[in-house]
């Protein structure tokens, strides 16, 4: 339990950040799953548009500080490699 006024304020702030971070991570994971499903079906054009949506969401999450840049760079690279393996 926070005792000081500033500690109470930090608890409120931390909760807001936690909710924002959870929402950002959830959005990225959802888009990533839809992209992987598109890759699995083998439709390259659908997968390409899905990849751009995932990359955009990841970059926005990095900008807000939800996910670290290195993590996103690694994931983007691996997702792009999967798209390259899909036959046209």
> What does the oligomeric state look like here?
single chain
Count every helix, treating DSSP H or I runs of 4 or more residues as helices: 3
Largest sheet, described in full?
A: none
- CATH topology descriptor: Methane Monooxygenase Hydroxylase, Chain G, domain 1
Low-confidence stretches: none
In whole angstroms, how far apart are the ends? 58 Å
Element pattern in H and E: HHH
Q: Which CATH first-tier class would you pick?
A: Mainly Alpha
Q: Averaged pLDDT, please?
A: 95
**DSSP strand (E) fraction?**
under 5%
CATH superfamily: Ribosomal protein S20
Number of strands: 0
Helix content: over 70%
Q: Please state the structural category.
A: mainly alpha
Q: What form results from the Cα inertia axes?
A: elongated
The total domain count is: 1
Integer-rounded radius of gyration: 17 Å
Concise synopsis of the structure shown:
The chain is an all-alpha fold and 88 residues long. It has one domain (5-85): Methane Monooxygenase Hydroxylase, Chain G, domain 1 (Up-down Bundle), CATH 1.20.58.110. The chain contains three helices and no strands.
Would you give an account of this structure?
The chain is an all-alpha fold and 88 residues long. The chain has one domain (5-85): Methane Monooxygenase Hydroxylase, Chain G, domain 1. The chain has three helices and no strands. Helix 1 packs antiparallel against helix 2 and helix 2 packs antiparallel against helix 3. The N and C termini lie far apart (58 Å). 12% of the residues are buried. The mean pLDDT is 95.
